[in-house]
Design goal:
single chain, 144 residues, mainly alpha, 5 helices, 65% helix
Length: 144
């Protein structure tokens, strides 16, 4: 059995160096265009075509029942999980709606306060008197 150590030893030992033939110029010229052998070059893989067109798969009733059981169990587990998470989801959505309504209520209170201030400014006695003076409206004099 050849191990990496044996292969490495074969190339580096003194015996391998002594067995090597001397390199000649004619050999160099002839071997210039030769390719070294590829690994596993002598191995040939043959792929045989297999025709399965006439083969009919037999029905397995146990596998079919098992598949339906798995499908039903998974569906039931999904429905239970959704049912368990639904109330908390509704609570979360309701919390967002309450927060939105609180913000709108605060905005409307600020707007109401602004409108009340504007109304008080518009109906003040001093402003009404100034408008009456501009329009030449005077209080009627008592006639006797």
């Amino acid at each position: 059995m050849a191990t990496i150590a044996n292969i490495f030893d074969r190339f580096t030992s003194a015996g391998a160096i002594a067995e090597r033939k001397p390199w000649t110029s004619t050999q160099a010229l002839n071997d210039t265009y030769r390719l070294r052998p590829l690994p596993n070059e002598d191995v040939y893989f043959y792929a045989k075509r297999i025709d399965n067109s006439r083969v009919v798969r037999q029905v397995d009733p146990i596998a079919r029942a098992r598949s339906w059981r798995i499908l039903g169990g998974t569906s039931l587990a999904s429905i239970l999980l959704i049912g368990m998470l639904l109330p908390s989801t509704y609570g979360l959505i309701a919390g967002y709606q309450v927060h939105t309504l609180q913000q709108e209520n605060h905005r409307l209170e600020i707007e109401r306060a602004r409108l009340e201030l504007e109304e008080a400014r518009l109906v003040s006695a001093q402003r009404l008197q100034d408008l009456a003076d501009k329009s030449d409206m005077h209080s009627p004099k008592p006639e006797s």
